[in-house]
Amino acid sequence: MDHVVHSFISKHQLIQPGQTVLAAVSGGPDSTALLHMLTQLREKVPFHLTAVSVDHGLRGEEAREDLAFVQTLADQWDVEFHGTSVDTGSYKESSGKGTQEAARDLRYRFFEEQMYARQADVLVMGHHGDDQAETLMMQMVRSARPEAVQGIPLRRPFACGEIVRPLLCVSKEQLLHYLNDRSLPSRHDPSNDRTDYTRNAFRHRVMPFLKEQNPRLHEHVQAFSERAAEERSYINEQAQKVLEYVHFSEDVEKFVQFSKQTFKTFPLALQRTAFHLILNYLYVKQNEDISYLHEEMFMNLLRDEKPNRSLDFPGGLKVVRAYDEITFTFADENEDSSFRLILHPGASVSLPDGSSVEAEWSWCPEEPDAFTYVCEDYHVNLPLIVRSRQPGDRMEVRGMKGSKKVKDIFIDQKIPARTRGTLPVVTDQTGEILWLGGLKKGGRQRGRSSTGPWLRLHYKNKADA
């Protein structure tokens, strides 16, 4: 069987000549067979081999004997050895994690330290084909998302190198035959017999039936996993085209924005993939609470014709749709962002969102854009007030008869609800709204014969800053 594993290693170039290779060895049948195969491969492909092992402090003297057993094997097979004992119980209590998760954290922490200490290229692990089949079945039960059903990766980046798993091409039964044919000893961990762990329950209750249906199940599952990984890699690459139209904030407070209509021009598969890539950016680490239900909620948001909608996702993430704009943000919309500032001619005020409004006297009556407002000084009572909107605000808009609600102006201009509180409302001391910064101008129309001076205001929004 070793030639099968060696061919698998060669096919996928898992180990290269001259590399520094660490092998994670517990003393169980899988890792013992792995270490022996690596010693055989070392005679054909020269590389430096080191066995690393961890006693998790959960099984007392028995676990310490496992550690000593691995060291004895390493000595017999002329392999360098480094082992350690960790206190999983204390770490579990301090971290609040479960036993298996806590043990895994400490185990991988030690492996990472050893990788960096030796500048190793590869950490070889003993997961085999049956482990792969179990993992695929568990993932399919837990998730309906294809990208979540990929199994154990054949290789992945780790520390200063990568983790590789050359035994994914063989079954547990083949490994036991390998040990038996060569009279190689191994240790047995009784915790593997317990069915209160989910994986063990699948191993003892589900897998026997599946292997009865197809004794070569492990080969089929591994082929599926490799193909799924290749196709997922391609789809992720194509989804980058979608992300070219997505704005990712560079501020401390992460948020993402994009156009709904532009997003929907891409194929559905790329929309779904881009959605998860956006979540990966925002959450940094995978959030286990995200499921296909959240994905469907998002897709429904894209299809809904209502101009304003929002979704609540795990971890305080909100997905807000305002007309064509969709925003992913952790910001709390209910936070009080109101402001009221005094503005004198010749001065400026800074708004909470980083924008500013400045006032000056000028002999030029021109208003080149929506961000400039000019009025005659005798039409306003100074100083001016720059404030956030208030319920019931109304203003007389130039060119229109009567007054209009500020709320209706926002709706007509399709201003997202989350940004309405940041736009400046400029009034004089009587409370008359002169200008809704960047949107609508009020106040009396200046006379044709007026010569000034003029009170000139400029709104410099955050995007211009």
CATH class value of the largest domain: Alpha Beta
* DSSP strand count: 22
Radius of gyration from CA coordinates: 33 Å
Biggest beta sheet summary: 6 strands, mixed
CATH H-level name of the largest domain... which superfamily?
A: HUPs
**Which architecture of the largest domain does the CATH hierarchy give at level 2?**
3-Layer(aba) Sandwich
Ranges with pLDDT <50 over ≥5 residues? Answer: none
The pLDDT mean sits at 88
How many helices? The count is: 13
Beta-strand proportion: 15-25%
Whole-number count of domains: 3
State the end-to-end CA separation: 67 Å
Strand order of the largest sheet: 3-2-1-4-6-5
Keywords: ATP-binding, Cytoplasm, Ligase, Nucleotide-binding, tRNA processing
Subcellular location: Cytoplasm
Domain Lysidine-tRNA(Ile) synthetase C-terminal: 384-457
Binding site for ATP: 26-31
Keywords for this structure?
465 residues, alpha+beta, Rossmann fold, Phenylalanyl-tRNA Synthetase, Chain B, domain 3, 6-stranded mixed β-sheet, Rossmann-like_a/b/a_fold, ligase, tRNA_Ile_lys_synt
Question: Which helices and strands occur, and which strands form pairs?
Answer:
Elements: H1 2-12, E1 20-24, H2 29-42, E2 48-55, H3 60-76, E3 80-85, H4 88-95, H5 99-118, E4 122-124, H6 129-142, E5 155-158, E6 161-164, H7 172-181, H8 198-213, H9 217-243, E7 246-248, E8 255-259, H10 260-263, H11 268-283, H12 292-303, E9 308-312, E10 318-322, E11 325-329, E12 340-343, E13 348-350, E14 356-362, E15 372-376, E16 384-387, E17 394-395, E18 404-405, H13 406-412, E19 425-427, E20 433-436, E21 440-441, E22 454-460
Parallel strand pairs: 1-2, 1-4, 2-3, 4-6
Antiparallel strand pairs: 5-6, 7-8, 8-11, 9-10, 10-11, 12-16, 13-14, 14-22, 15-22, 16-19, 17-18, 19-20, 20-21
Helix pairs in contact: 2-7, 4-5, 6-8, 6-9, 9-11
